[in-house]
Design a protein that fits this description.
The chain is of the alpha/beta class and 287 residues long. It folds into two domains: 221 residues, Ribonuclease Z/Hydroxyacylglutathione hydrolase-like (Metallo-beta-lactamase, Chain A, 4-Layer Sandwich), CATH 3.60.15.10; 63 residues, no CATH class. It has ten helices and twelve strands. It has a seven-stranded mixed sheet. The chain has a five-stranded mixed sheet with strand order 8-9-10-11-12, with helices on one face. A hairpin with a 4-residue loop joins strand 1 and strand 2. Helix 7 packs antiparallel against helix 8, helix 8 packs across helix 10 and helix 9 runs antiparallel to helix 10. The radius of gyration is 19 Å and the shape is globular.
Length: 287
């Protein structure tokens, strides 16, 4: 684990999200869990070396942020936004999250095959949130304040966890630091508003959903990435390009690498980003 401050730890080198934990005088707060089974087990052991886990906060419903909850059963109260809970490991038309998690085992965590649950076993008790909220909520524990701020955009239940005493903000996938941004089903207008809301916070360290720990200045970089995608697709539509042409010709492959373990997904990311923006912009024209 990388030590960000005296009390904040994260891991930016795994396939999946950046799972983190914060040490307080009255136990540990985990923020997102590793997707890979052996990494989840190891992180739990490391966190519990600092004290009992009191809370597990999930910042979004995407599988790489929540699948590891299964290996944290009995370790604190799981808390998340209500919109996250509504989408927790739901199988959709474009993605089976359980199958996606299993797909990574042979290449990224072969030892995890021994402890990877069967589908029925997993869904019987995945360790989903037991406490949910709408809007924002504040938790005080062991001398620290955890402000759970609803910052939708990347997902409807997206949450930023702000700890003023440590001058740290955990943004989840509202920030993709120095790697490809996944747009998919996101709401760009809400995402931009979320960046503005995070900007109002007073912090030095920004722990993103993916990529290296950064600073508040990276909010401007993420904004530019979103705007470049929207502008490029909108310009293509204005030229009369078809959906297939937009998917084939609008991309930002050279701009950033993919995150750890996702090298084979570069084309998938570009295709899904372009297609989702095309569909949203065209739907907006017809509204």
């Amino acid at each position: 684990m990388e030590q960000v401050t005296a009390k904040v730890y994260t891991n930016t080198k795994l396939r999946g999200c950046n799972p983190s934990f914060v040490v307080t005088n009255d136990g540990v707060v985990v923020i997102d869990t590793p997707q890979l089974p052996t990494k989840a087990v190891a992180m739990r052991k490391e966190a519990e070396r600092h004290g009992p886990i009191r809370y597990l906060i999930n910042t979004e419903h995407h599988v790489d942020h929540i699948f590891g909850n299964y290996f944290f059963k009995g370790a604190g109260t799981v808390i998340a936004h209500r919109r996250l809970d509504e989408n927790f490991m739901v199988v959709g038309p474009d993605l089976d999250p359980f199958a996606y998690a299993k797909e990574a085992i042979p290449t990224d965590d072969p030892d995890g095959a021994k402890i990877f649950p069967e589908r029925d076993e997993y869904y019987n008790d995945p360790n989903r949130p037991s406490v949910t909220f709408t809007g924002d909520v504040t938790i005080k524990l062991g001398g620290l304040t955890f402000e759970l701020i609803h910052t939708p955009g990347h997902t409807p239940g997206q949450v930023t966890v702000y700890i003023p005493e440590e001058r740290v903000a955990f943004t989840g996938d509202t920030i993709f630091s120095e790697c490809q941004t996944w747009l998919l089903t996101s709401n760009i207008d809400e995402w931009l508003a979320a960046l503005d809301r995070i900007r109002e916070l007073d912090f030095d360290h920004l722990v993103p959903g993916h990529g290296p720990v950064t600073t508040k200045a990276y909010l401007d970089v993420q904004r530019s990435v979103l705007m470049e995608w929207v502008t490029a697709v909108a310009a293509a539509i204005a030229k009369g390009w078809s959906r297939d042409e937009v998917i084939a010709r609008v991309h930002f492959r050279e701009r950033w690498p993919v995150d750890v373990g996702q090298g084979y997904m570069m084309d998938h990311i570009q295709t899904k980003n372009a297609a989702s923006l095309y569909d949203k912009l065209i739907a907006g024209r017809r509204a």
